[in-house]
User: What shape does this take?
Amino acid sequence: MNRRGPFAVLLVAALAVTLAFLILPIVAIFADTPPGDLIDSLGSDASRDALWLSLKTTLAALIVIVVVGTPAAYLLATREFRGKSVVVTAIELPLVLPPAVAGIGLLAAFGPKGIFGSALADAGIELVLETAGVIVALTFVAAPFYLRQAQAAFAAVDPDLLAAARTLGAGEPRAFWRVAIPCAGAGISTGMALAWGRALGEFGATLMFAGSFQGITQTAPLAIFASFSTDFPAALALSAVLVAISAALLLAVKLLGRSPLLGGVQA
Amino acid sequence: MNRRGPFAVLLVAALAVTLAFLILPIVAIFADTPPGDLIDSLGSDASRDALWLSLKTTLAALIVIVVVGTPAAYLLATREFRGKSVVVTAIELPLVLPPAVAGIGLLAAFGPKGIFGSALADAGIELVLETAGVIVALTFVAAPFYLRQAQAAFAAVDPDLLAAARTLGAGEPRAFWRVAIPCAGAGISTGMALAWGRALGEFGATLMFAGSFQGITQTAPLAIFASFSTDFPAALALSAVLVAISAALLLAVKLLGRSPLLGGVQA
Amino acid sequence: GDDSDDTSTEAGSTTAAGGELVVSAAASLEPAFTAYAEAAGIDAKQSFAGSDDLAAQIRQGVTPDVYAAANTSLPDDLYADGLVSKPVVFATNTLVLAVPDGSQIDSLDDLTGDVTLAIGDEGVPVGDYTREILGELPKEEPEAILDNVSSLEPDVAGIVGKLTQGAVDAGFVYVTDVVATDGALTAIDLPADLQPDVAYGVAVVDGAENPEGAQSFIDGLLEGEGADALADAGFKPPPPN
Amino acid sequence: MSSGLEARFAAGLREFELELELAVEPGTCLALVGPSGAGKSTALRVIAGLHRPDSGSVALGERPWLDRERGVDLPPERRDCGYLFQDYALFPHLSAWRNVAFGLKEVPRRERRERATAVLSRFGAGELADAPPRELSGGERQRVALARALARDPALLMLDEPLSALDSTTAAAAGRELATTLAAAEGPAILVTHDFADAALLADRIAVIDRGRVIQSGSAAELSAQPGSAFVADFTGAAVLFGTARATASGTTVVALDGGGEVRSSDPAEGEVGVAVYPWEITLEPPGTEAHGSALNRIEARVTSVTEVGSRARIGLLAGQPLVAEITGESLARLGLAPGVGVVATWKATATRLVAR
Amino acid sequence: MSSGLEARFAAGLREFELELELAVEPGTCLALVGPSGAGKSTALRVIAGLHRPDSGSVALGERPWLDRERGVDLPPERRDCGYLFQDYALFPHLSAWRNVAFGLKEVPRRERRERATAVLSRFGAGELADAPPRELSGGERQRVALARALARDPALLMLDEPLSALDSTTAAAAGRELATTLAAAEGPAILVTHDFADAALLADRIAVIDRGRVIQSGSAAELSAQPGSAFVADFTGAAVLFGTARATASGTTVVALDGGGEVRSSDPAEGEVGVAVYPWEITLEPPGTEAHGSALNRIEARVTSVTEVGSRARIGLLAGQPLVAEITGESLARLGLAPGVGVVATWKATATRLVAR
Ligand SMILES: Nc1ncnc2c1ncn2[C@@H]1O[C@H](COP(=O)(O)OP(=O)(O)OP(=O)(O)O)[C@@H](O)[C@H]1O
Ligand SMILES: Nc1ncnc2c1ncn2[C@@H]1O[C@H](COP(=O)(O)OP(=O)(O)OP(=O)(O)O)[C@@H](O)[C@H]1O
Ligand SMILES: [Mg+2]
Ligand SMILES: [Mg+2]
Assistant: This one.
């Protein structure tokens, strides 16, 4: 049913406009950056440390988000309870915090003087100005995107499929794992991509909560910001590299998304 | 099937942890802010202008995103074509740009010296340092969230429903409008909430592309940041107000989400 | 249970105590401070951000050993609030009028014409200095210039970014920032009589885990490798008092 | 050892209250039949633990599955019943054989595929093992779902319309397989069907539900011998006419048909009734042939349809109300029946069952 | 004016190639029957424009809908056919009546609800008008979907198993409504069904598909008189035994049954065949009674099931292969038949059709 028609044209037009608008600024950055600089920016350890740290921390954050967030989203999708929309709204609130404010909030909550500060200190957990702190900040900023996306995906799964799994002797955990997750797979992997991308670009909250120590808390966006005021071209180059790398990784996620676990059919 | 069991407990635990983690920093901000300040911060016109501008611009951006993005997402969800995953990845890329870099990218694309700069200038369109620029910046950073979420939602709609609509004489536009959108309603409204929230918290790109000028381009996050160095408590107070207002609005969206158009059943 | 906790606390503390030094410094100091740390072989964890971001952190209980700002007002405020020791000025910078390479503008007077400016917001060091200069100018000029201001930036990066992308025609930044753009921007020196003293203040943070290290680091800034590194980066020494 | 099912519960539905009391002996099969929307599927969902009734209890032998009073309510997975959903509910992300294997947890991994395919093959779906549900035809889906429900021979078997999407041949074959399975099964089984032949073949007892209540139950023979209602009569294959009955001195009951005309029955009855007669009890005569005694019912009718099957023909009639007669090929030829032709339908008063509407 | 449907196309499916050539006169109804997975639904999807064939053409009268050669391919919405999906495809977000009203674009808004409810009521679903699909029973959904397909009397009507989920009574009522609609319809109609009675009642011609090809077509009477294959025979209600035929001097054909035993037929045939006999042609006798002439087929069998219906009984037999006989209540009593009892099944050689397997 892929016939051409005014509507199909309209769809294509919409996609073209969207794509152009979203891609152009990125292209522009590459255009502004002589290829040489790309290589150079990979040459400096500051950059390499930053990229490497970004990968590690965003991955860690993503894992935390998925491990804790998936059951939470499943619960929100499958259970009805009073005040549910309040809970859901609460989950969305971190989105509207300007990054720096989010950082302040994290400090006020988990910082040395924060509500939980002493508790964490007693437990010997150091977050502020530590890599762990970066992961906390990224998790805080990116989690809402995954949670809501996963919730929507789970909600779209036909309840009778879960019921069928149960009658076939699968406890809810197995039904969740073997039916709900694969059936919501496409949506879930989308949520992962969104959350990961968001975390990778995070700047303000990390800077405020974890500082910007090369190799410890200076993620790529922080390194970029740092060199803004010291070596502007290098900043752009590093950004370009960041984009290139994440493009590659996101494409990989897509291919993973085709795998049986996430969306495909298991023969 | 809402029976208590170890798994149910685990789900509840996961949600509780998630909620606590996401809510605590926000609570902390309120805790740090004497109620009086909240009122005061609403007293200053700088704050009122900023909040008002934020509402206007985020709403405008959301409208642009939904109007152009929905058909684009529908196309991505219903058509298969080579290089599709590349296109989808391209849509996700803006996520990974650190905000300031996104701003630079926008300048390099649509700024006076930008690729499109002269074209826009000839068309008499001024974006940079104008309110319109804010909308562009917000659209750029928020669009990917809506697009991907909407795409996932459309993809989850049973194709036979669209087929049925077609056999009942509905052209693809009507099938899209009367069947695809309502059936994807829940997912779409989630996407709107995510994109709107993201836009509301946006800081870096707006600052870089549109600057920060009270009443014209100084959105709430910019105003907050501006008063950071001059009047820290006021900054926190304004953040708290921002959170409170958006919480109210997001709740409203939820209730809207129950309406027939988005997810409910039309009796 | 217990012992694992202990070891982790051990680990936590050793990283900070073992002679290591934690420095929070204004973004514009990055090249100078990194060079300094290398030259002097100081094992320093350095975090560079906006002076006010770092101040906000300290207010929230974050305790680096050293706090170095791009002005003196922020350290003074923290000192007044008993969060840092008495600040000392360790360097000065020069405010310049920055314009994109090849711009027509070559003096303050051109700013009253049909041009757009980006300047630092009030409360932001660069913004306050800019206002100081404009204050010195003859009567009507300041208004004329301020009327051309189309963006009040919370940090220097915002101004630099807009200048390099041609979003504005001119802006007031530090000479060090112009140097950093690799020729994308040109600095127009301001009349010496207008030049504000852009002093950089540094202080030991109260509750620092390594106060001795902090003090010696600061001393190094005033004379020795630190001072040299600052000079190389285009900073001027503190005014003799 | 194995044990029977005892279920009694009440659950509110949109139009009416579902109030059932069902008992199924171990090793036997109960057929649930009834009009569309009577509550059959809901009953199965309650027993499977997918729909919680307002009150009542469900127990398999000694083992209580549900007891609202005592607060017992086992989750579906602990009730061990194989349930064929009316709309299949196949897992879209699993191939046919994986769907079937889903329930085979205790079978060693290596053997699962084999086992699953074996069950599929019994229902002629062996070569579909690797196909994803979305690429299966309606009947193929139904057979995969059936195989999935049977594969892990559960303590209780519940099949909601297992053969409804199958053509006669496939259905017959599947039906025989099902019969063997049911015969072999030690536990009780419940079968929802709208086909009397299936019910008679597969089930030991038939319970007829209407608007949430059991209105009659018994063996196929009992139901067809003494249909308790028009629905049951129709279900067993009788043609049903509606009318109003009054007793006569002679002891026979006279029924004034709604569409006009009168018939007599040996059954006693008063007021509104259904008149049930099996099509093969009816003989057709040319119009105007005179009556041979009042023992015979005679009503004028018009032929609406003629369907020849082998040496026999089913004749659709309109006698104020629709009616069906089954006659031999010879009499069809003799009477020269065709749509529009007028005839007289006659049958014995003793072959005339009077049933509640 | 209205015009007939001409369709001929080829489309590859998993197991085989669907190669059909169908022609349906205006105002007539064609029944598509065939084994599960034969390609019936796919055929409808091709005609409706939901599945693009590899080659071929579809035209309604002068109007080409599809012509791969000439590159014509109208989108579904411009083909104006009412299509009942086998699995209903009801819009989950619309109540029953809105589902039906969806197709009523040209009806003025105010009247839509009324119109939709009217159609629903014709199929006994009037009071479900406001219910969302998820709250409907299987049969209720089917009737809503049927109403939706009929509501906007389309140029071509295509119904995929319209009555499969309905009990006999509801199905009969719905069937009559459907018959009226089809009779009134000016355009052609295609009906997929697995019920011979439905096909005979509703359709003017029946086309039997197997593995993607039409293997026989004709009226119900023709099919039952001369079944072209075992499937057709079975479909028309005959019992089918398999065996190998050889001609004899006497001109009659002798078939050695796979399960053992021998039967004779007046039909000529060689090699592997199906032996079709209608259950009511078979009479049962106690074992050991001697033959009266070779004109009669006799095979030993064991009773597997007994189903009494009214004054009649269907006897399931096993004579190496399953077989069904239909006898009178009297003979049932006389022979004292019960599962396990041995009998001799006899029927006339002339009543024995030989069909392709
Ligand atoms: N979720 C629900 N909420 C309210 N009413 C419902 C719900 N599900 C079903 N019903 C109603 O309950 C009645 C019984 O439904 P059920 O599915 O048990 O019927 P059924 O006997 O299975 O019919 P069928 O033979 O058509 O499948 C129907 O009238 C239906 O409309
Ligand atoms: N999307 C598909 N891809 C490949 N094969 C398919 C697809 N859909 C159906 N088939 C196969 O094509 C054959 C015909 O399917 P179809 O649905 O037309 O059968 P049908 O005649 O409608 O059967 P039923 O009576 O069971 O509904 C089946 O063997 C089925 O497995
Ligand atoms: Mg049902
Ligand atoms: Mg089909």
Q: What stands out?
A: Chains D and C do not touch (no CB pair under 8 Å). The pocket of magnesium ion (ligand 3) is lined by residues D 40-41, 86, 160; E 137-138 (CB under 6 Å). Residues 168-184 of chain D form the longest helix (17 residues).
